[in-house]
Hints:
By secondary structure, the protein is mainly alpha-helical. About 65% of the residues lie in helices and about 5% in strands. Pathway: Protein modification; protein ubiquitination.
Amino acid sequence: MLTLIIQIVKERRFSGLSPSECLQRELVHKLSTGDATRSQLVKSLPREFSKIDKLQQVLDRIAAYSNPSGMNQGTYKLRTPYWKELDLYHPRWNSKELQVAEERYMQFCNASALTSQLPKWTKIYPPLGGIAKIATCKTVLQIVRAVVFYAVFSDKSNASCAPDDVLLTALHLLYLALDICYMHRGSGDCSCYGDDVIPILALASEELSLSKYGDQSLLSLLVLLMRKYRKENDFVEAGIFDLSSLIGSLLEKFAELQYECKIKLQDLAPDVVNQLAQSVSTGDTNNLEFVPDSDKRKAKARERQAAKMGKMRAQQSEFLKSIDSSAEAGAGDSNLGKERSDPDVRCNYEEATQGMIDLSRRLDMRIMR
């Protein structure tokens, strides 16, 4: 049901995309599952797209052609930039093809499609703009809140009432709803509003009494879920992606879009509000993209390594200068003296250089970890 809601809200084949854009989307969909010949691509297309005049033009733009080799026919391979157009909620997916596409995305983009290719709001024909209210309505908030509740408080001895795939789809739906709020706020469009308020924002901090679990709101449940996965890091497959960072980005967007949510999060998760403040100070709040914590640590480590390497290069320059000055000072010495001193100088230089190389390798290994 959650997948169907996302598809209803974001599908644009007949309500926003041009024929050329639809053709490109279909080709990306096919090539994401594997390289293909031109005839295979044409055969996979819906009938109305296979006859479009711009087929070859679009194909050459999004795919690289490999010439025939031996008995193998020439094939097309999706170019790296167009992996970013992979649509996980394309209505023509089957479970096997979708899994293959996700694995290939990981292979070519070194990231998980489940947290990179999130559903977003795109332009739609004006008469259909009200469809945005589906994703931002109170019912969707209640559904997402229920899924997050069961994901947080499920008994580990029993199967979760919110399986991993259901939880992830619920977070995708919430992502789409917040993207709608963000896009409509920027454009001044009120088509996602109901009675001058957006339910999914206005009710996000609403607390409900949940018996032994106390009073909980959607925001408080998301904070608990973020901390749970930050500790356990066991969602789907460890290391594939950081779910806690995705949830953190959703909380940041709540704080950015609704002042009441920001006040609530200052008590629940001050680190999220602080992160938002840093993003605002740098002007990096134009979208819902997030950077995993591991990537942030690696970036900082690279900065430290660059600083240390710069310092080592300066020390190396000073060392070389000292060698030159020593050589000039000893220019009047005998050849025997030179023969004795030169090996010592070379030895010291090689030891210093090797030490810097070893240090650089150790820094690289730490960053990779």
